[in-house]
């Protein structure tokens, strides 16, 4: 008996150490999360400085050109005049920096860098709300060390700012969903609503998510105490969320003489994901040359071209339901890939692919484990919302085409689920150690 206990001492000692560490992390979770923010800020900022003013992708040049057009007083315009091809949210975020820095590319990279810092803090707050300070710290550390996030944050892409807005909207919604509303409920509702509206005009595919969460808030408070205050709160949030999309829609009606709720690239994106010569991984490089030639002969304007591409994609799906269904399922699967076939040469390597796979799949495995263990550890409100947002947006993205950078906000949600899974496992391991420690 004595030898058995003696043989278990190293094992018990390791678990005891982990238990003590968890206690320390829980007690100082905020400080640890801030340290993760600071370290990531230094690393991401350094990478941004190395990149300097070089623009690596066509999309970056488009966003800079649109921002410059607004800064020069020409409105949201391209080479052919007023446009709605790109959603306006990200150029609006870049505009103040453009004006203050006289168009410095490096300065505009700071929008993504700072958005990532805010994202790390928000995922800590949501992890703490979902489970514990330990879960929050794990989420912050995983977010800070995730390579794809750092890489995308330094590019002039809207995905990392969109992730920040998504988590800000989610945190505000969680506060508004509490039985007792926050002290400054109108401030929370206003911030949450504005974040949701700006998110919608930054990455329009999140528009349905914003509407769904607001509908869930209305349903949650339908029979609760303080129902009248809850409805006022929801009304403030809803109106705030509607402001920016409404203003943009009115602008499009005036400038383009058409109803364009978000952008005029929906049609081409739908066709790039649903036509006879595209594949699940071709993305924006898909072959739609036949349709482009037909469109050129028709001499369509921007809005008409959007409708033409949309109708062609829908016609192909209706006429080819089996191939369209198979392609959709393949795109859903490709959403979980670790690499893309890039249209820009020289931007991929075997090392990058290896790093991407090693960073992504363990986190995906933990997130799946959290779902598989929901009977043992029922999902809380934050986890349920995160899971439904993740699944819903994976299915929605696959209607168009899938790319790693488009998946970046969803990776942030996955990291939150992975962190709560790891926290549950560590908590269970710690409790077993306490029960089995020798007296």
Keywords for this structure?
single chain; 439 residues; 1% strand; globular
Per the principal axes of the C-alpha atoms, what is the gross shape?
globular
Number of DSSP-assigned strands: 2
Round the Cα radius of gyration to an integer and report it.
24 Å
* Estimated share of beta-strand residues: under 5%
Description:
This protein has 439 residues and is mainly α. The chain has a domain at 158-260. The chain is built from 18 helices and 2 strands. It has helices at 2-27, 29-51, 58-71, 89-101, 105-130, 133-144, 147-154, 159-176, 185-200, 207-220, 227-255, 266-273, 289-298, 302-319, 321-334, 350-372, 381-397, 408-436; strands at residues 77-78, 81-82. Strands 1-2 form a two-stranded antiparallel ribbon. Helix 6 packs across helix 18 (408-436).
What is the element layout, followed by pairings?
Blueprint: H1 2-27, H2 29-51, H3 58-71, E1 77-78, E2 81-82, H4 89-101, H5 105-130, H6 133-144, H7 147-154, H8 159-176, H9 185-200, H10 207-220, H11 227-255, H12 266-273, H13 289-298, H14 302-319, H15 321-334, H16 350-372, H17 381-397, H18 408-436
Helix pairs in contact: 1-18, 2-5, 2-6, 2-7, 3-4, 4-5, 5-6, 5-7, 5-8, 5-18, 6-18, 8-9, 8-10, 8-18, 9-11, 10-11, 12-14, 14-15, 16-18, 17-18
């Amino acid at each position: 008996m004595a030898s058995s206990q003696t043989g278990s001492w190293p094992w018990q000692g390791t678990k005891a150490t982990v238990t003590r560490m968890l206690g320390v992390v829980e007690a100082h979770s905020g400080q640890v999360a801030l340290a993760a923010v600071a370290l990531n800020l230094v690393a991401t900022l350094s990478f941004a400085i190395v990149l300097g003013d070089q623009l690596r992708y066509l999309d970056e040049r488009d966003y800079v050109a649109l921002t410059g057009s607004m800064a020069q007083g020409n409105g949201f315009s391209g080479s052919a005049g007023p446009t709605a091809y790109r959603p306006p949210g990200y150029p609006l975020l870049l505009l103040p920096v453009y004006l203050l820095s006289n168009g410095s590319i490096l300065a505009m990279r700071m929008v993504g860098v700072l958005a990532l810092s805010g994202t790390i803090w928000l995922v800590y707050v949501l992890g703490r709300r979902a489970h514990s300070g330990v879960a929050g710290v794990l989420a912050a550390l995983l977010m800070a060390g995730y390579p794809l996030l750092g890489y995308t944050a330094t590019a002039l892409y809207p995905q990392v700012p969109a992730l920040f807005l998504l988590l800000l909207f989610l945190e505000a919604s969680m506060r508004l969903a509490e039985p007792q509303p926050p002290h400054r409920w109108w401030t929370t509702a206003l911030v949450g609503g504005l974040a949701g509206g700006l998110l919608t005009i930054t990455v329009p595919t999140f528009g349905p998510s914003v509407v769904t969460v607001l509908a869930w808030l209305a349903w949650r408070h339908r029979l609760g105490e303080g129902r009248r205050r809850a409805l006022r709160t929801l009304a403030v949030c809803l109106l705030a969320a509607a402001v920016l999309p409404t203003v943009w829609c009115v602008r499009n009606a005036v400038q383009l003489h058409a109803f364009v709720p978000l952008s005029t690239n929906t049609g081409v994106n739908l066709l790039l994901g649903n036509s006879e010569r595209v594949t699940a991984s071709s993305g924006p490089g898909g072959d739609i040359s036949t349709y482009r030639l037909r469109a050129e002969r028709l001499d369509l304007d921007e809005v008409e071209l959007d409708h033409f591409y949309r109708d062609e994609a829908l016609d192909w799906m209706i006429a080819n339901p089996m191939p369209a269904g198979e392609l959709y399922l393949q795109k859903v699967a490709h959403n979980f890939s670790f690499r893309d076939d890039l249209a820009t040469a020289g931007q991929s390597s075997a090392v990058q692919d290896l790093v991407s796979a090693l960073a992504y799949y363990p986190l995906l495995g933990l997130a799946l484990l959290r779902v598989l263990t929901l009977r043992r550890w029922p999902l809380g409100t934050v986890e349920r919302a995160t899971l439904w947002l993740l699944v819903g947006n994976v299915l929605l993205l696959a209607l168009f085409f899938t790319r790693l950078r488009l998946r970046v906000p969803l990776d942030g949600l996955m990291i939150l689920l992975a962190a709560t899974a790891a926290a549950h496992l560590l908590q269970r391991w710690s409790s077993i150690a306490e029960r089995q420690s020798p007296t």
